[in-house]
Amino acid sequence: MAVMNNQRTVRVELGERSYNVVIGAGIRKQIAQLVPATAKRAIVVTQATIPFSVEEDLVNAGISVRTINIGLGEEFKSIATFEMIMRECASFGLTRNDVIVGVGGGMVTDIAGFAASAWHRGIAVVHVSTTLVGMVDAAIGGKTGVNLAEGKNLVGAFWQPRGVLCDTDALASLSPRETRCGNGEMAKYHFLVGDDLLGLSLIDRIARCVEIKADIVGSDEREGGRRMLLNYGHTLAHAIEIATEFSVAHGEAVAIGLVYAAHLARELGRISDERVTQHRQVVEGEYGLSCALPNGVHHDELIALMHGDKKALSGLTFVLDGINGVEPVTAVSVDAVRSALNRMEVR
Ligand code: GLY
How far apart are CA 139 and CA 106, in angstroms? Predict the structure, then answer.
């Protein structure tokens, strides 16, 4: 990691597709340096609630800009939104030399990245991340996509950005809930590497999470193995999000999923009761997140949804803690999954 005044730079090493993630206050102003020199046009994908824009900086750099505000809420992370963006690209005359810029949280950067992966079979994309979840996870590593009614992120592509700007100015406007969601993803990194992330300043905490993720992505871009670890807590989390029609937000669901993963690992004899308690202490005590299942969600529905997870290559698949640390575990029995669900508190 490079440290310069109030700026941190982490490199995602992917050969000729390597790029920098720059974190700092006001860092969005660097946008023009990241777009390709060939770009004459930029489509900016954003949302009406995003606290700042990058259009002026792009226009000042001689680039024509068209802005697309996509809908608020996970239901807009859809094929319909993707099609709308594709049609705007067509009417704006976006070429292979041009660029798409995603300015927003994970939903925006996921859709902007997917649009860039598909338009003319792939053009440049730059992300300006404005949420904690986006900065520590979604904007980094090139996973892009949209949801189907059948599941989250089922349609998408791996498409790496040319660069990512994490502008910490945006964090002041986050709601307590959005901050909680970021904490859910950070708690995940806590279990992956055991660092005392909460002991760091905010900028260094974000940079350290980016560094952990960059290291994993650099070694397993397409999730053939190690990258699956980033899904710690996510198998149940995705099911909860869908079962509650996204009234439980992603980071909140990850927090519940982390504690559930500990119960499941205990059920399978992989960890001790003490380690389960540690999970609860970290998630609830240190990161301030609820780890109880939402009331009214049926276990059968969660199990059916977890069968549809993208990791489920060979039966029910989870990332679970154990004596070798956190690792993917396939063919987990439905009985164990159900017993672990029964161990969870309900709120
Ligand atoms: N969000 C998990 C990953 O990027 O692999």
Answer: 6
pLDDT tens per residue across span 6-56: 999 999 999 999 999 999 999 999 999 999 999 999 999 999 999 999 999
Determine whether 238 is an active site residue.
Answer: yes
Residues 6+ apart with CB under 8 A from 81: 70, 71, 111, 146
The closest alpha carbon to 316, from 297, 339, 293, 290, belongs to 339
Say which residue the tokens 């798409």 belong to: 100
Place of tokens 């708690």: 187
3-state secondary structure of 68: strand
Compute the distance between CA of residue 338 and CA of residue 126 in angstroms, rounded to an integer. 42
Query: Phi and psi for 312 in degrees, rounded to 5?
Result: -75, 70
* Domains and their CATH numbers in the chain: 2-178 (3.40.50.1970), 232-342 (1.20.1090.10)
Ligand 1 geometric centre to CA of 89 (Å): 27
Most informative mutation of 231, 232, 319, 326 for ligand 1 (most atoms within 8 A of CB): 231
